[in-house]
Amino acid sequence: MEPEHDRWARDLERLRPLLGVLARQNLKPRLWKDIDPSGVVQETLLEAHRNREQFQGQGSRAFVGWVRRILLNNLYDALRKIHRIHNDVDREIAINEATSRVVIQLSGGDATPSENAMKNEDVLSLAAALDQVDQMQRDVIELRYLQGRSLAEVAAILGRSQSAVAALQHRGLEKLRERLKGR
Questions:
Q1: Structural domain boundaries enclosing 181
Q2: Are 18 and 77 found together in one domain?
């Protein structure tokens, strides 16, 4: 039987791609240069591991929610630090809108526990597959499909032409499909 400590570490590591998606979705793209989403994810995983005795819930849904809350708190802290450094009121986080999409996907409404488990696995698989796509392609996919931005908006955010963004999107979706087929 697997030791509790090892299982806890494995369960946290499985959340890394999902936390990466959440971190990037909760930060406005122009903040990515000031706040490294992967750094916030790493800090979150370390904090969750250190404070595992504080987790009082039961089940994967409660576990994901607990770790997600740690991530959001860490994002708020990073933004407060940036705000103090830059004193720029416009540098804020859009947590509620972006995370509500993921929470809706994870909660599943009136679904049965087995349906919720399958849905959770799908979300984790998608996040893991996105984590394996080239960063620029992943940024395009997340901005287009998770944030619902237009091609023109994505091009402006990333400082690329619309045709370059369209090509990145096409290649990124192809790679994403390949990754998901292999699961």
A1: 132-183
A2: yes
